[in-house]
Write a sequence for this structure.
């Protein structure tokens, strides 16, 4: 793996946020030496009796054993304690029958060590594909992990799941609800192979809300479509993407009921955390030096708007232009053209930030290249395209494509 | 534009081929200073009375004025002389009404200068998008171009159409037919924005065959699908892609008739030139250091096989692994998974060259990393994936993704 020497220039200025204790969850993280040495690489979250768990997963047809196992288990009953274990360094993907055995061995060992039904033990693995996971290195550390469980351990846990990430990612929100406050705290890791249908992305969100599994699942599915499924770093989709949310029910607030105001407030809070984490993942995209919001309006349909947004956000020529701080709007026109969406060259409007660069099929009369070039120097770039045809809208977030991406990925396994 | 200092390491060892005179065609090339200085940037081909012309074009919905004009004209009657004029440096794409006026001005001027019906004058423009084409610089040179017309001028013409190309691209073949020999000679330029539905790619093929326009069009459409529509450099599709073929009918060989042996021989010859030129375009892909053939077999359908081939050939993670000479077959699994095609992890077989790296859902028992790493040092890499599900097959050609691509494209317009 190429050494990552420096933190992304787009990392949050304030560093990792102070995440609150979520009543009912304890964390542990330590060095198991799964692949890396000299850093924590395994995290365990122990969840109290009755915790409801929901999740969303990669749609890859070659998904990993751990993802398949989680998908089987999500939606089961919420009786008894639960646990989530994550290792970094090896994704246990495309590892044949041995991969399934590894997941079974780990979940069985956790079940035994913590007294949790095996059907309530969830695991994720991230890292290299196709090499057998040395699961014994993880199970050998279970006693230590158990002894280290601590309700304040979430920030160490967020560090344990990192691979090529240059900073740990966390986000939190509090929601005022009937009878008390609901807290939500989440962590994520990126940072390559990021594309809709998720990414090599692992996301764990913890809340003390009282909420049924089915309602929680509905909300997280809806929020995933508006957040993690709208980001892309390199258009590649991982075999291991997993988002799990665990609700302990320990908040004094009343149980959430679908369609009510408190439920909507919870949803908005959840979505804000997921959006924050999704943006942090993009900002830590391999080699990223610019964060780009791609807005598309005026498409004949939402689906067409998404096609255009995706074509722009995934275009290597657009992304290298952003890297070069070049207001090369011709490449936006190219991306619109190749998207497959209905488009009329002469009704296109393209803006960089508030600067209209092109309209009516040509460069805007008020535009000058210096304005565009100055705008492109910012860290955060907004590219807006109006197709002028209908009311379909979409937004995607991406980063630029730089030498850093090549350096990291041309030498990942060496 | 970033300076291209060195010729691609994948350039044909023998240099530009010796192209034959095609009876009925004369070429001229010179410096018009459209954008570049100190190099030829305009080429003119004059085609004799009765030449039939067929073509294939980008499917971009934002295609350039010249492409739209060619599409209008192809298929018209073949009476009188014809001409093809190409300029490099400015693509005249997304230039509003002015773009159409520029095409009309150039074609009118050629019509007047050479005594050719305007409906038989074809043009292409390649280069930067969105800047007005200084067409007067081209028409000012028409007398010089006319004076320079020479049946031996094809190799200079091939140089005049280059943009970021590091070498000119030519190919030729002779076909023995009833009554004599048929010659075909072609030229192409790449080299970024290359993807199915063509690319920033201009291709001009000349033959002395006697052939009807409709038969010629059928053959070139069919051959495009098996050649230029199977290559990708960066998944981006240009607004300007154009392939034109002109048949002068000057060969002593009998007129080609569909379904006959001579016609099939001509088709195979044409396809071989188109494949050669397509490969040369990929080998000159921006920053390319490796040529990659992606073979997919065993898919449930041809369409699924193409999806998988395209997902592999366009994956930045696969392409950076190739750049790093890393036999990272896990990224092939990832690409299969994200392709959207039907796939069963446990029936996948992946080979690098003749080396089976993965089968039955895991690394092959006979595989060792040293074998794979040695293979990846070659300039030409074959990656084969068998899905084990059906008889759908596809092949695509691509190149690696290197620092060179970033360097060229992050600074194209500066």
């Amino acid at each position: 793996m190429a050494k990552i020497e420096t933190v992304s220039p787009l990392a949050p200025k304030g560093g990792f946020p102070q995440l609150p204790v979520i009543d009912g969850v304890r964390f542990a993280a330590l060095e198991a030496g799964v692949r890396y040495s000299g850093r924590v690489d395994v995290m365990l979250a122990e969840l109290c009796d009755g915790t409801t768990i929901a999740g969303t997963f990669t749609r890859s047809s070659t998904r990993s054993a751990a993802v398949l196992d989680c998908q089987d288990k999500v939606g089961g009953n919420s009786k008894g304690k639960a646990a989530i274990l994550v290792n970094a360094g090896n994704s246990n993907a495309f590892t044949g029958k041995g991969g399934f055995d590894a997941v079974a061995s780990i979940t069985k060992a956790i079940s035994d060590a913590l007294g949790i039904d095996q059907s309530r033990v969830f695991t994720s693995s991230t890292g290299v594909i196709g090499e057998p996971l040395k699961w014994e290195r993880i199970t050998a550390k279970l006693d230590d992990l158990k002894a280290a469980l601590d309700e304040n351990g979430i920030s160490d846990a967020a560090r344990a799941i990192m691979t090529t990430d240059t900073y740990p990612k966390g986000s939190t929100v509090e929601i005022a609800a009937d009878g008390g406050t609901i807290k939500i705290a989440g962590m994520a890791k990126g940072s390559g192979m990021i594309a809709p249908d998720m990414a090599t992305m692992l996301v764990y969100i913890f809340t003390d809300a009282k909420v049924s599994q089915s309602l929680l699942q509905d909300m997280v599915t809806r929020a995933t479509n508006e957040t993690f499924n709208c980001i892309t770093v390199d258009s590649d989709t991982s075999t291991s993407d997993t988002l799990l949310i665990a609700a302990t029910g320990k908040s004094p607030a009343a149980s959430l009921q679908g369609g009510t105001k408190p439920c909507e407030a919870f949803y908005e809070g959840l979505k804000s955390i997921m959006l924050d984490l999704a943006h942090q993942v993009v900002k830590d995209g391999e080699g990223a030096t610019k964060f780009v919001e791609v807005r598309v309006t005026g498409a004949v349909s939402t689906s067409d708007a998404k096609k255009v947004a995706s074509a722009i956000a995934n275009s290597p020529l657009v992304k290298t232009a952003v890297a070069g701080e070049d207001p090369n709007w011709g490449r936006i026109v190219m991306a619109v053209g190749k998207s497959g969406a209905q488009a009329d060259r002469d009704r296109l409007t393209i803006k960089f930030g508030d600067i209209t660069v092109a309209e009516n099929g040509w460069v805007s009369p008020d535009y000058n290249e210096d304005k565009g070039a100055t705008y492109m120097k910012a860290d955060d770039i907004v590219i807006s395209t109006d197709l002028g045809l209908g009311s379909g809208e979409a937004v995607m977030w991406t980063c630029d494509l730089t030498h850093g991406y090549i350096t990291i990925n041309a030498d990942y396994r060496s």
